[in-house]
Amino acid sequence: MKAKDKTLFCALLTSVAELYGKPLSANVLEIFWSALERYSLEDVRRAVSFHVTNQDNGQFMPKPADLLRYNEDSNAIKALHAWDKVILAMQRKGAQCSIEFDDPAIHVVINEMGGWVSMCYNSHKDKLPFTAIEFQKRYSAYLIHPLPPAPDYLWGITEHINRICGYHDQIPKPVRFGDKDMLLMIENFNALEKKDDAK
């Protein structure tokens, strides 16, 4: 969350406290803010919703650790969905073509793990579980920590070979994989960035 979200965050927690008949002091609100600041306001809202509807412990006022637990579980699910997308791309597209995902975090993680070609070849049956664990661990970390600059897309075998051989005019466009609206939004953002850099 950003500083501008603090008022809404405090209003949300105050409403939750009112629901449980447990008023929160300014100091306690500050503790909640410090513990949850790294998440988005939407993530906190979702965690609160999960907690108050939980039949096991939803009758108790949530502590920061309760809301953190829901967010950690949520991050694990997001990382699993990202990995599912990568697996699907490897099965449908393979290492030959360059690929552009709709999620810059996927680009960063795959790059850190050796690139798209390496990812495809290191994901055979015997290595797949270990590759999956490493990918999800790295991806989950970037849901909490700032994402470094991400490449626009990941090179495949054809692009690697053509670049090495100097056939720069024979490099096919990367295959786009994922949500079309998200890909369009990323493309527009990258175009704006390049325009700003040119000034």
Task: Write a concise keyword list for the protein shown above.
199 residues; mainly alpha; two-stranded parallel ribbon; 9 helices; 2 strands; 3% strand; elongated
- Could you say which overall geometry the principal axes of the C-alpha atoms support? elongated
Order of helices and strands: HHHHEHHHHEH
- Main β-sheet: number of strands, strand sense, barrel status? 2 strands, parallel
Helix content: 55-70%
Radius of gyration: 21 Å
Strand order of the largest sheet: 1-2
Low-confidence stretches: none
Question: What is the multimeric organization of the chains shown?
Answer: single chain
Mean pLDDT: 86
Number of strands: 2
Q: Helix segment count?
A: 9
Helix-strand category: mainly alpha
The fraction of residues assigned to DSSP E strands is: under 5%
Instruction: Give the termini separation.
Output: 31 Å
Task: Explain what this protein looks like in three dimensions.
- With 199 residues, the chain is mostly helical.
- The protein is built from nine helices and two strands.
- Helix 2 runs parallel beside helix 4 (64-92) and helix 3 crosses helix 4 (64-92).
- The protein starts with 5 loop residues before the first helix and ends with a helix.
- The model has no long low-confidence stretch (mean pLDDT 86).
